[in-house]
C-alpha cells in the first residue's frame, strides 16, 4: 500500500532551524532529517528565499514566502482596506443581517456589479478574522452571535429512526388551542459531559413545570423517570405528550402503555413545534447551568426548582403564576379531585375561587405536608430571584420591602443599614456596588438601576437598595485558631463586602440577593508577620486565600468561588498597608504599601511635588497592589497607560517565603522577575509593597469638557488629539449615562435626582 502524506508549508520555526543549521554548516539532507521533510523541500526553500548577497535568514525567507502567497491570490471584493468593506461594516453595526446587506447593495447599485457581494462572502469575511476584539465585535453584530459558523448542511441523521413514531401533524387540534389542561411537552436537560440528565415536563395551558430525576441519559432512564412523574398526575390531566426525536424516547410505546398518554413526535430540527418546553429549558438553566453535574440533585431539590418556576409570574398569563392558572383551569374545567403533583399542589385542597385575584394565598392553596424542605443554603442557590423570608411576587401584589431602615429625606435618602459590624477601619462602603453605604440612592438612580437590571428578569417593582439583612449566609466552615481571632472577621457585612467585585454582573447578583459563595472569613492583617501567619494556617488546613485590595475587580478576581478542592475560603484585606514608606526625590521614586488607595497615594506624594500619574477608572476605590496584580491600565491617562511603566521592584509574601526583587534602573540579564508579579492576579502570593517610578507634578493644570452631537464626531476628535503629540494628562470619551454616574456632568440634566 502506498502511504501518502498531506503537504505542509514550512513555518517560521522551521526556517529558524534551517538558518541555524545552515550557519553551522549542515547539509540540506541533514536539515531535512532534522525537520522530517524531503531534501527537495529544503533545497527549493534555500534557492527561492536566499538573497544573493546575504546568507539565508529566517525572517527574510518568511516575508518572501508570505509575499508570494499573497500575490498569487486574487484580491477579494471585501478587502479590509476597501470602501466596500467600510460600507458592509457600517451596516453590520446597524444590526443588518448579511442577507439584508447583500440585497441592498444589489438594489442600490444595480449597474455596478463590482459592488455586489453575496451574503456568504460577508459571512466568510466576518469569520475569517483572527480571534480577537475585532472578531468579537463583528460576530456580536449577527443575530445569534455564534463564535463559529454553523454548517449549511446538517448532514444525514445516522442515529436511526424511532420505531412506530406518531407525527405531531396528526395530533388533535384541541392540543394547539391550549384550552383544556392535560397536554404536555417534554425534553431532556443534559449535564456535564452528557453523563447526567433531568427530564422536563411542561403543561401547555398553564406552563406548569415538573422535573424528573434520571439516572442517566438512556432510554431506560427516560421510561422510568417520565412514567413515575406522569403517573403522579391524575389520569384526566395526562392526555398527550409531545417530544422531539431524541433516541431516549425509543421506548415510547411502553411509556404510553404505563401512563395512558398519547405520545407525539416533532419533525427533525423543528424546536418551534415544542416552543413552550424550549422556553422553559432556558428558565431552568438559571438553576441548572450548562456544565453542571445533574446527578447531585435529588428529586426533592428538583421539585423545589419546579416550585420556584411555578410561582414566578409570567407575561403570557398577564403576570399570574402557572400554579394560579393551573388552579383556575381545574376549577373552570371541573377537574378531578385526586392528587395532581405531590410537590406542587393537591387538587383536593382547591376551593373554587370566584376569580384569580380573590384566590387565597399560595401557602394556603397549594400545600403538601409531606414535602421535605431543603437546607437554607441549598434553597438560596436554587432560588436566585427570591428574597429570603419573602413569598414570590404574584398577582396578589409586589415583593414587600426588605429594608425598613431606608428612609427618604429631603434630597438624597440616607441609608441606615441594620448591621454593619466590621473590623475594617475605613468608611463603610456599599457591599453591593460603588460608593459609600451612608449615601442612599435617589429615586432617579433607583429607576436607573431597575432599568439596567430589568432585562435579567423580574425584580419586583418595589425591590429596594440591598441591605445586610436581605442575605442569608452559610456559617463559616472550620474553626479559626485563637492566634488569628483578633484580625479575622466573620460578620455578614465583612463577608458580603468581600464577596464580589464591582462589575455589572456582580452588582446584578447582589441586587438579586444571590450570594451562593461568600468567603468564610475576612482577615485584616497589619504586618507581614500577620500575613505569614494566615498563609501558614491556610496551607495546613487547605483553606484558599484570596488577596483583596479595593475590591473593584470586574473579572471575578476577588470571588470566593474556588471550587470543592478547598475546605474553606478566606479573603485577605490589605487596608492597613496604606503608607508611603520612603520617597527618593533624587530618583523620583517612592516605596509604597500595596493597600494604599489611589486618592490617599496622590495626597501623600503631593507635599514632595511628585505624582504617580496612574488614574484607572476605579482610582477612588482601588489600591496600588490591585493595580500591580491585575496589570491595570490608566484609562484616564495618555502616554503612560499601564502600571508596568511605573514598577521598579516588588515585595510579595508567599506560602514559601518572601520574594523581593532588586530595584534597578534597568537590566538585560535574563527575564525580568517583576513580570511574574505584574498581572499575577494574586495566584503567586500577596503583594505588600513596591518601589514606583514617579513624575513631577504639573505646575499648571486646566481641564475642559466638550459635548458632541454624535459619537462619530467625538471619536474623530479624540483620534486627532491622540495623534497630535500633545499628550494631555487625561482624555476620555464618555457617553451621557457614564457622565451622569461618574459625577462629571449635570446630574439633574440626566434625570438621576
Q: In summary, what is this structure?
A:
By secondary structure, the chain is α+β, with helices and mostly antiparallel strands. Helix content is 31%, strand content 12%.
Characterization of the model:
- It is globular and about 90 Å long.
- The chain is of the alpha+beta class.
- It has a 5-stranded mixed β-sheet, sandwiched between helices. Strands 14-15-19-17-18 form a 5-stranded antiparallel β-sheet.
- 34% of the residues are buried.
- It folds into 6 domains: 12-72; 83-141, no CATH class; 168-365, Nucleotidyltransferase, domain 5; 406-573, 2-Layer Sandwich (Uridine Diphospho-n-acetylenolpyruvylglucosamine Reductase, domain 2), CATH 3.30.43.10; 580-696, Uridine Diphospho-n-acetylenolpyruvylglucosamine Reductase, domain 3 (2-Layer Sandwich), CATH 3.30.465.10; 711-750, no CATH class.
- The protein has 25 helices and 20 strands.
Characteristic key phrases:
single chain; 753 residues; alpha+beta; 6 domains; five-stranded mixed beta sheet; five-stranded antiparallel beta sheet; 12% strand; disordered C terminus
Largest sheet: 5 strands, mixed
Q: Specify the overall morphology.
A: globular
Structural class determined from secondary elements: alpha+beta
Rounded to the nearest angstrom, the radius of gyration is: 33 Å
Which range does the strand content fall in?
5-15%
Number of strands: 20
CATH level-4 homologous superfamily of the largest domain? Ribonuclease H-like superfamily/Ribonuclease H
Strand order of the largest sheet: 3-2-1-4-5
CATH-derived topology of the largest domain: Nucleotidyltransferase, domain 5
Note the total helix count: 25
Q: What is the name of the CATH class of the largest domain?
A: Alpha Beta
The share of residues in helices is 25-40%
Low-confidence stretches: 334-417, 747-753
**Average residue pLDDT:** 78
| Architecture (CATH level 2) name of the largest domain | 2-Layer Sandwich
Termini separation: 82 Å
Overall number of domains: 6
Amino acid at each position: 500500500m502506498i502511504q501518502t502524506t498531506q503537504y505542509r508549508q514550512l513555518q517560521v520555526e522551521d526556517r529558524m532551524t534551517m538558518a541555524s543549521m545552515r550557519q553551522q554548516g549542515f547539509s540540506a539532507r541533514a536539515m531535512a532529517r532534522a525537520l522530517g521533510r524531503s531534501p527537495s523541500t529544503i533545497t527549493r526553500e534555500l534557492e527561492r528565499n536566499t538573497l544573493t548577497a546575504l546568507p539565508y535568514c529566517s525572517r527574510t525567507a518568511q516575508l518572501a514566502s508570505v509575499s508570494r502567497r499573497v500575490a498569487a491570490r486574487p484580491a477579494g471584493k471585501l478587502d479590509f482596506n476597501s470602501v466596500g468593506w467600510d460600507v458592509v461594516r457600517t451596516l453590520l453595526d446597524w444590526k443588518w443581517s448579511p442577507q439584508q446587506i447583500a440585497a441592498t447593495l444589489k438594489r442600490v447599485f444595480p449597474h455596478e456589479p463590482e459592488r455586489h457581494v453575496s451574503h456568504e462572502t460577508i459571512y466568510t469575511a466576518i469569520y475569517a478574522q483572527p480571534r480577537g476584539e475585532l472578531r468579537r465585535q463583528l460576530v456580536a453584530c449577527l443575530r445569534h452571535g455564534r463564535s463559529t459558523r454553523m454548517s449549511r448542511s446538517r448532514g444525514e441523521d445516522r442515529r436511526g429512526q424511532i420505531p412506530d413514531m406518531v407525527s405531531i401533524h396528526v395530533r388533535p387540534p384541541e392540543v394547539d388551542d391550549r384550552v383544556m389542561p392535560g397536554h404536555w411537552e417534554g425534553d431532556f436537560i443534559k449535564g456535564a459531559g452528557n453523563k447526567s440528565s433531568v427530564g422536563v415536563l411542561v403543561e401547555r395551558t398553564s406552563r406548569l413545570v415538573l422535573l424528573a430525576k434520571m439516572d442517566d441519559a438512556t432510554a431506560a432512564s427516560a421510561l422510568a423517570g417520565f412514567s413515575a412523574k406522569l403517573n403522579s398526575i391524575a389520569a384526566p390531566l395526562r392526555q398527550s405528550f409531545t417530544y422531539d426525536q431524541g433516541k431516549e424516547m425509543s421506548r415510547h410505546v411502553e411509556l404510553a402503555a404505563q401512563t395512558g398518554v398519547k405520545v407525539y413526535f416533532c419533525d427533525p430540527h423543528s424546536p418551534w413545534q415544542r416552543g413552550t418546553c424550549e422556553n422553559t429549558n432556558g428558565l431552568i438553566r438559571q438553576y441548572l447551568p450548562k456544565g453542571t453535574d445533574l446527578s447531585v440533585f435529588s428529586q426533592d431539590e428538583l421539585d423545589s426548582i419546579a416550585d420556584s418556576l411555578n410561582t414566578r409570574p409570567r407575561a403570557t398569563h398577564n403576570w399570574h403564576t402557572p400554579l394560579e392558572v393551573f388552579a383556575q383551569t381545574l376549577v373552570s374545567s371541573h377537574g378531578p379531585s385526586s392528587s395532581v403533583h405531590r410537590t406542587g399542589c393537591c387538587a383536593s385542597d382547591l376551593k373554587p375561587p370566584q376569580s384569580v385575584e380573590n384566590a387565597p394565598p399560595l401557602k394556603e392553596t397549594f400545600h403538601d405536608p409531606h414535602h421535605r424542605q431543603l437546607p437554607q443554603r441549598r434553597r438560596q442557590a436554587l432560588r436566585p430571584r427570591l428574597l429570603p423570608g419573602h413569598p414570590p411576587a404574584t398577582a396578589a401584589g409586589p415583593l414587600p420591602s426588605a429594608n425598613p431602615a431606608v428612609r427618604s429625606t429631603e434630597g438624597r435618602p440616607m441609608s441606615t443599614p441594620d448591621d454593619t459590624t466590621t473590623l475594617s477601619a475605613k468608611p463603610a462602603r456599599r457591599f453591593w456596588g460603588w460608593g459609600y453605604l451612608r449615601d442612599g440612592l435617589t429615586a432617579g438612580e433607583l429607576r436607573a438601576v431597575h432599568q439596567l437590571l430589568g432585562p435579567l428578569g423580574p425584580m419586583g417593582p418595589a425591590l429596594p437598595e440591598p441591605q445586610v439583612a436581605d442575605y442569608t449566609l452559610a456559617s463559616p466552615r472550620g474553626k479559626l485558631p485563637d492566634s488569628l481571632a483578633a484580625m479575622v472577621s466573620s460578620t455578614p457585612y465583612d463577608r458580603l463586602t468581600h464577596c464580589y467585585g464591582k462589575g455589572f454582573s456582580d452588582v446584578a447578583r447582589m441586587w438579586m440577593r444571590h450570594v451562593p459563595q461568600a468567603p468564610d472569613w475576612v482577615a485584616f492583617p497589619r504586618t507581614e508577620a500577620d500575613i505569614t501567619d494566615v498563609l501558614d494556617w491556610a496551607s495546613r488546613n487547605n483553606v484558599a486565600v484570596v488577596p483583596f485590595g479595593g475590591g473593584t475587580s470586574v473579572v471575578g478576581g476577588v470571588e470566593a468561588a474556588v471550587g470543592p478542592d478547598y475546605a474553606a475560603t478566606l479573603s485577605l484585606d490589605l487596608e492597613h498597608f496604606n503608607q508611603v514608606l520612603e520617597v527618593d526625590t533624587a530618583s523620583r521614586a517612592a516605596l509604597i504599601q500595596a493597600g494604599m488607595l489611589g486618592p490617599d497615594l496622590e495626597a501623600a506624594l503631593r507635599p514632595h511635588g511628585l505624582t504617580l500619574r496612574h488614574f484607572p477608572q476605579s482610582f477612588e476605590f482601588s489600591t496600588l497592589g490591585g493595580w500591580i496584580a491585575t496589570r491595570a491600565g490608566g484609562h484616564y491617562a495618555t502616554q503612560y497607560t499601564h502600571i508596568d511603566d511605573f514598577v521598579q521592584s516588588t515585595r510579595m509574601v508567599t506560602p514559601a517565603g518572601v520574594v523581593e526583587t532588586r530595584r534597578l534602573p534597568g537590566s538585560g540579564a535574563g527575564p525580568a522577575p517583576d513580570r511574574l508579579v505584574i498581572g499575577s492576579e494574586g495566584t503567586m502570593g500577596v503583594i505588600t509593597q513596591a518601589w514606583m517610578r514617579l513624575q513631577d507634578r504639573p505646575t499648571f493644570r486646566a481641564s475642559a469638557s466638550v459635548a458632541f452631537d454624535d459619537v462619530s464626531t467625538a471619536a474623530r476628535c479624540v483620534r486627532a488629539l491622540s495623534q497630535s503629540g500633545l499628550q494631555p494628562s487625561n482624555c476620555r470619551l464618555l457617553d451621557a449615562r457614564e457622565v451622569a454616574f461618574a459625577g462629571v456632568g449635570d446630574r439633574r440634566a440626566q434625570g438621576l435626582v
